[in-house]
Amino acid sequence: MTSSPAGRKILLSGSRPTGRQHLGNYVGALAQWLDLQDELECFFMIADWHALTSTYRDTTELRENVRQQMLDWLAVGLDPTKATIFAQSAVKEHAELHLLLSMFAPLGLMERCTSWKDNIVEGGNEMLRTYGFLGYPCLQSADILMYQAHVVPVGKDQVEHIEKTQDLAQKINHLYGTEADPVFRVPEWRLGNAPVLLGNDGRKMSKSYGNCIYLSEPAAEVEQKVSVMVTDPARVRKTDPGDPDKCSVWSYHKVFTDPKHYDGIQEGCRNATIGCRQCKKLLADEINARFEPARQRRAELERDPDHWRDVLREGNAAARTRAVATMERVRDKLHLYSE
Hints:
Blueprint: E1 10-15, H1 23-39, E2 41-46, H2 48-55, H3 62-76, E3 83-87, H4 93-104, H5 107-111, H6 114-122, H7 131-146, E4 151-154, H8 159-176, E5 188-191, H9 219-227, H10 248-256, H11 262-270, H12 276-302, H13 305-333
Parallel strand pairs: 1-2, 2-3, 4-5
């Protein structure tokens, strides 16, 4: 079985290329990745094939989204000397393993996926009634098993995907491996404890809603977006007491603001000794201080347009080296034709 040459546990994680990264992307994934790249052997994947499951009708922004995402990943500190950063579509072995896994995947296992039930069975979204959308958990399993990952960081809503990967790995191991020499390592999940940040309008943070605060935005834009964030509706006037737990601004403070300010913010809100404008100004200042170094780094990267491509090209090659070794083993175990 392929293992980490460094003797560290292997981690696979990734995200679809959605372009510029916002604070929700940072809190939900990037901040955790920054810590994990020092602890584990990490493979961070731009999942551009996965993007096609829902955006197949219009891919005109896909390449630009990859560029923007890479710039932000590198700007915040993902380090290609510590982790392998690669594009899914550049490693064709993912498609081969996806095909092989699909031979073992019961149809019911795919149909029980929450996203399929929510979008197709209950939502009636006919645009997503495709083989690719039905089978994307199988492709996700291929992504994970390709690198013999020990661990995959997920949120609670994604645990079912790792369980499907475990089911497929165990089925193939039972049929073609042994306890001492399994075909695949059965991965485990690692639950993150990242809070969910709402957009500045109080809805789910989404590019389509136009309610995101992006990592690369100038300080003035951050201040403007924070200034219109939804607060406790009970605070109509500055003299009205409020409840921080009903205010989305406080949820951001708990992530980005120095804890030394927590008591003052909470007491000031409840006692109406500080206004929402002052509270928001403090938050904007904290966010800007946190991400100013990343903005400067991003500006440097944009002046060297070949750098991110070189990083991705080298990551693609490293990922493919590992993938080729995995597929040679899988073909041998499954007794497939080999020259």
